[in-house]
DNA sequence: CGATTTCTCTGACTAGAGTCAGAGAATGCA
DNA sequence: TGCATTCTCTGACTCTAGTCAGAGAAATCG
């Protein structure tokens, strides 16, 4: 990390927090404390359980309760017990609450507009593009890769999404029964590993590593949620799995894929995988890849 | 302004304020309230008058006084009367204060580093580049163009800087006496106009428009401070002056320039100026430009 | 069925970040 | 010289944004 990079990041932080901060106070902190405004926003159109609000905003239960009393006193929300579990209480916006939320929304738009407003067309386009890039990369930096059991709810969510997507994208559809998929035991230590990527705690991708004794390691079930694409997550999975395979003493890593998954095929090429003849008879595979892996020298691990 | 742009800006605001905000609290709000930290930072290595601190941070005088008492009690600053005006008090960092400021500085670096840390080399480079672009364009959006009298201190500052720069950049040096410079009266209404660009209230550029009766309008003394370059300010000056010339009923706008000012020459070309034969005998000019101007249709003025 | 846990709420506090209204000293201006 | 102004400081407040320690109701577990 160069100090010129650090300096630029600091300049960015200063400019953005100043500019956005001032406007934020001006547009959004107008007639309601921002704690209340945030809560009002999070309740959403459908209503929400108090405990989930607390969780999402990371606030103390007493504090949330007090904020809700205040919103209730202003006639913006109603709080009633949850029908199935009467300990839990559900918050719902009243019509007045919905109107208030709509003005908050409009103010957010105004705030955004006021950043673009002084610029000409070309500058606006460049600013928005650069913001998208910053947004993407900062988000990418918060995605965590965790080893989990393939039976974990987050893993199951990813696998189900993965299968659904394969069914939609494969010309022939996809039937898990017909595929040479590993059973769960093959993706838990010592026979393998399973990784889940999470963004703000929500699962947004998975990848499995098979470590069959006496055979090359193999990547299975790699998937990235649509909303987490373009964050370099596929590449991160591959690098992580390569390192793990190497740590288990494997020198060859393999995978197979379907011709419909063009982005994945591009990724494999760009990550140094070589296309090779079929090494299995997976019915849904059209391409087979392999890569020699070695434990990276310590200096590059960082 | 498209709603897709607005949405992207809002997403950016959310991501950045969250990510940077959390880290900000973690790194900088550690052992000192951020009000004190900001003040400590603004005092700087040289010491500073209380009134200027107040001005720069936009704080209440009572509040600043209390913050200073607190910093003083911690042995971080000393406050003593200004030698020439004993109403004013000057704050100076003690050695302990300087040390504290250095740790704040280090923490800012850490904060910046922690944004880059989870990314790989290529991603870091892209993030930093995108941040620089956002920084530049947000800054550009806060630059104001104001009509001022050429005798105003900000105007004089710009003109002096302009002449100094010409002296350095012209092969032959530059002597204002030899040049066909307009006198100040030619740049005040009704014979002309003079604009100063300001960033956070500080002058960062100027441009003059001569409106000689019965002759084409002419641009003179256009200058942008080094720290405000690459913000599209030159183009903004030209557009603004074109509009003003048109509003005064002129249809032709002229200017001359020196061959050393290559960036300016590029700008004139790209803004639609055509190079023409010399229309004056300004000794320092090598290129002469003109452009037909018309009042822009209302739809484009926005 | 009783003990434990979960969920929400209330009351009592705290710290930070300011605001506002003078008071007192020094300086500037007519 | 005297009056107004400038500058800083103090005291007395306010509002946000929390935290912490229970209490009471409902649900769950063994």
Automatic annotation (TrEMBL), chains A, B:
<dbReference type="Pfam" id="PF12802">
    <property type="entry name" value="MarR_2"/>
</dbReference>
<dbReference type="InterPro" id="IPR016181">
    <property type="entry name" value="Acyl_CoA_acyltransferase"/>
</dbReference>
<keyword id="KW-0808">Transferase</keyword>
<dbReference type="GO" id="GO:0016747">
    <property type="term" value="F:acyltransferase activity, transferring groups other than amino-acyl groups"/>
</dbReference>
<feature type="domain" description="N-acetyltransferase">
    <location>
        <begin position="143"/>
        <end position="296"/>
    </location>
</feature>
<protein>
    <submittedName>
        <fullName>Transcriptional regulator, MarR family protein</fullName>
    </submittedName>
</protein>
<dbReference type="Pfam" id="PF00583">
    <property type="entry name" value="Acetyltransf_1"/>
</dbReference>
<dbReference type="InterPro" id="IPR050832">
    <property type="entry name" value="Bact_Acetyltransf"/>
</dbReference>
<dbReference type="GO" id="GO:0003700">
    <property type="term" value="F:DNA-binding transcription factor activity"/>
</dbReference>
<dbReference type="InterPro" id="IPR036390">
    <property type="entry name" value="WH_DNA-bd_sf"/>
</dbReference>
<dbReference type="InterPro" id="IPR000182">
    <property type="entry name" value="GNAT_dom"/>
</dbReference>
<dbReference type="InterPro" id="IPR036388">
    <property type="entry name" value="WH-like_DNA-bd_sf"/>
</dbReference>
<keyword id="KW-0012">Acyltransferase</keyword>
<dbReference type="InterPro" id="IPR000835">
    <property type="entry name" value="HTH_MarR-typ"/>
</dbReference>
<feature type="domain" description="HTH marR-type">
    <location>
        <begin position="1"/>
        <end position="136"/>
    </location>
</feature>
